Amino acid sequence: MNRPHVLISGAGIAGPALALCLDRFGFAVTVVERAPALREGGQAVDFRGPVHRAVLERLDLWAPIHAHRTRASAIVLLDPAARPRVTLPAVMASGDVEILRGDLVRILYERTRQAVDYRFGDQITGIEARGDAVAVEFERGAPATFDLVIGADGLHSNVRALVFGDESRFLRHHGYRIATFALPNVLDGAREAQILSVPGRAVGVFPTSPEGARALLIHAGGPLTRAERRDGGELKRSLRQTFAGMSWVVPRVLDALDRAPDLYVDGIATVHVESYSRGRVALLGDAAYGGTLGGQGTSLAIVGAYVLAGELARAGDPGAAFARYESMLRPYATGCQAGARRAGSFFAPRTGAGLWLRNTLYGVLTGPRLVGFFERLVKDAATDFVLPEYAVRWAPGRQALVSS
Ligand SMILES: Cc1cc2nc3c(=O)[nH]c(=O)nc-3n(C[C@H](O)[C@H](O)[C@H](O)COP(=O)(O)OP(=O)(O)OC[C@H]3O[C@@H](n4cnc5c(N)ncnc54)[C@H](O)[C@@H]3O)c2cc1C
Fold first, then answer.
1. Tens-digit pLDDT profile for residues 356-400
2. How far is CA 102 from CA 99, 141, 283, 290, in A?
3. Which residue ranges form the domains of the chain, and what is each CATH number?
4. How far away, in angstroms, is 196 Cα from ligand 1 center?
5. Whose CA is nearest to atom 12 of ligand 1?
6. Could you tell me the pTM of the whole model?
């Protein structure tokens, strides 16, 4: 029996996680990534509650993630005069275990690079259904046919644009933008993350070590324009302008922005597609149900990869597998997306009154009486899923699909 051959677009989190699962089930996998190399930027990403833990254990990722875990720390919310107002417990931002996105990208890639055919610096330019196969054209590589194509190429998915339609139909912008980049620890060795908010703007510094940190800049604003997407220099200039005049360590953060090699900027948006699949093409991760910030995009991408691969291995028929994957994932993903809708206004309420309200509310919620309730609350959406067991034997020899 020929091994079914799956083409995945995108080597972020969802793509390599799916490659890992599919390879174990006996599929042949090719991953095409537009960037010339792995994109290792981004804030720390976290996993929380028993569902995340179970999926990571089943994929043998729990131990390596722990080995690279960051030191989870509380987050101190500062008022416009840089005075501490509220201390959020570590679990809110860091869950049970937290790892820099770049470290996770590398772990997933290292785990799959031997078995999976990775093609960097290329992308899909055409997708056409041909009976039981999909004919694909590439910007650089030769055309080829695959059994299935999966779009795991992020919020602005190329596969989604080619097969489902323009992103303006699916992307719901929530009125804010975020920017993140690595910088020296401008908090002078402090361990706790700190966020300064003024109406409509927030600057956070998240130490990753005594020497290093990651900056998180959030401000009220519309979606990025195509010109901004193309011109990193223009983005840096506009961020400088937007955050000019803020006190505290913000001038040092903006100096570091000029030198940032790994700037990541996007609008805070959620993705809403009518269906996660069409024919032999399906969407996974941010491409299907992304949320930018606060929507647990990374853990959702891994749970989604596990379910999608399991269903494909179990069903044999891709239509049935895609339908079951969607029926399981959609309610879970929709629940998690609620966090993304609230993220901008949590970090940077638009008015002074909003800022006061946030600080007062979170002051109460994180006080000694309610902190247990608060910790349950921040894990709620993540735990609202029953992880399926797949009665499919893992196939370490990758000879064929084997169901029991
Ligand atoms: C560099 C970077 C930094 C990030 N930082 C943060 C952060 O700080 N906070 C946060 O909440 N989320 C961040 N994200 C998003 C976060 O990674 C996702 O929400 C989540 O992990 C789900 O992952 P994903 O694989 O679906 O999407 P992503 O991690 O976005 O990965 C998508 C991959 O697809 C690739 N791609 C895009 N277009 C094409 C194309 N045409 N052809 C082939 N490949 C393509 C991208 O280069 C990328 O490698 C970041 C994403 C990236 C790429």
1. 999 998 888 887 776 676 676 667 777 788 899 986 555 554 443
2. 8, 27, 22, 18
3. 5-383 (3.50.50.60)
4. 26
5. 292
6. 0.92
